[in-house]
Write a structure and sequence with these properties.
single chain; little secondary structure; two-stranded antiparallel sheet; two-stranded antiparallel ribbon; 6 strands
Length: 188
Amino acid sequence: MIICPICEHQQAQGTECDVCGKKLVAAAPVAVAVAPMPDMETTHVAGGRAPVAVSAIADLELTRQQAVGAVAVQPVSDLDTGRSAPVGNIVSSPVDDMDTGRALSDGHRTAAPTGPAICRYCRTPQESGLVCDRCGMRLIKMRTPPPAQAQGEALVPSGEWTKCTKCHTNARAGRACVSCGTPVPAAG
């Protein structure tokens, strides 16, 4: 069985791959005795490298350009050089009715989003964490923190699954969080 090194196609026989065309075996040139045929007409130029007499055609226009230094420079009278007359002192005044883009504050602020974060990729709601537990994409940052745990149940034994204290993603206690790199504390 022959296996192509490029596309890994397997075939039983052949000198080139049936799929990609890669030559699989290098065929050595076969030595064949060459003899000129007696009825064949030979060329008139011996060896193929003999000098041939040529002459220039009288009506042919030469296309080769002159060297740059040999061309006379001619100024163009109506060419705009892109320069303008110097500008004097300009008197500027502010525009009175120009909108600055800011509206006057009415004292009301938009409330920060609360409740579970919804992943924008897989639409899975999630109560805590900065990384989606289902698809692994980063969640929105503006959320309320998860409810605080009691003092006794905060630390779990080393190696157990818990939540990271910084980003609230699932992590192993006693190791660094895979999302933010913060060390996750462990009990004992």
